[in-house]
């Protein structure tokens, strides 16, 4: 619900279309003769779909609200990292992956659950409603509170994590109660869930360490000229980090240098008028 509200504030009204559906041949011809006519398509023997250019554009979307929401969310994520996690763990807490609404950390500690139990101030930043009810951390005080972080796997432990790009990662979930890996989570943006299930942890590792490229076939249903058809795609599922803006920061394919690091001097410059 929050995402849909945010999206409505950021709509680009310049991309709105004016579509008309007409049956009458004279009305169709009248629209075709109009200077606003853009394109038309015969959908069947009786119905014509016509797209017209907009004559008036109302900039009535509160884009400043959407912009502010995005900037405030970035600020919240940064404050959590620097004011909470770095303050708590210092060099023993390493940021591994960050997205718009989630962070993955590698933390060197005896027991993260004990840390949360002992440090009440630290625990106020989290929502523990997804923990089992019998777990000592379980409570619903922060359930659904905007800005609070959920520990994704609750009482379970992520033992191995490989990230290649945003929404393209793999990790293993270890259950201390069962003393074994009970789940493997995989994501590969752009591929279907059924294809993601066929990906193996080793393929993620080889994409990271050996720059391997993994392609997978998938079938999709698409529409063209109001006709549905199936298509077989040869989709790029996994690949090495190729973005030029990251290459200079990477030390050993896992660790990176921060902006401002002395080894990055001369690579970036700020131009001011």
UniProtKB/TrEMBL annotation:
Source organism: Heterorhabditis bacteriophora
Matches recorded under InterPro entries: DNA/RNA_pol_sf, DNA_pol_palm_dom_sf
SUPFAM superfamilies: DNA/RNA polymerases
Gene3D superfamilies tied to this protein: Palm domain of DNA polymerase
Name under which the protein is recorded: Ribosome biogenesis protein RPF2 homolog
């Amino acid at each position: 619900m929050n995402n849909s509200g945010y999206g409505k504030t950021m709509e680009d009204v310049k991309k709105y279309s004016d579509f008309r559906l007409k049956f009458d041949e004279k009305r169709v011809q009248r629209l075709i003769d109009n200077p606003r006519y853009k394109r038309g398509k015969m959908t069947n023997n009786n119905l014509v779909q016509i797209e017209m250019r907009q004559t008036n554009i109302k900039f009535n979307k509160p884009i400043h609200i959407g912009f502010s929401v995005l900037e405030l969310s970035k600020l919240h994520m940064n404050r959590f990292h620097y004011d909470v996690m770095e303050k708590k763990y210092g060099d023993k807490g390493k940021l591994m992956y960050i997205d718009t609404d989630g962070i993955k950390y590698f933390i060197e500690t005896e027991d993260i659950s004990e840390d949360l139990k002992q440090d009440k101030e630290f625990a106020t930043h989290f929502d523990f409603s997804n923990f089992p009810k019998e777990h000592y951390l379980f409570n619903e005080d922060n359930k659904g509170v905007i800005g609070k972080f959920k520990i994704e796997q609750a009482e379970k432990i992520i033992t191995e994590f490989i990230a290649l790009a945003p929404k393209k990662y793999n990790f293993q979930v270890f259950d201390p109660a069962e003393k074994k890996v009970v789940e493997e989570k995989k994501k590969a943006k752009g591929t279907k869930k059924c294809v993601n299930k066929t990906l193996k942890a080793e393929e993620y590792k080889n994409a990271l360490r050996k720059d391997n490229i993994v392609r997978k076939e998938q079938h999709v249903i698409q529409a063209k000229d109001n006709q549905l058809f199936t298509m077989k795609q040869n989709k790029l599922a996994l690949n090495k980090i190729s973005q030029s803006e990251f290459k200079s920061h990477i030390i050993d394919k896992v660790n990176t240098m921060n902006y401002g690091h002395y080894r990055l001097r001369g690579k970036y410059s700020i131009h001011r008028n």
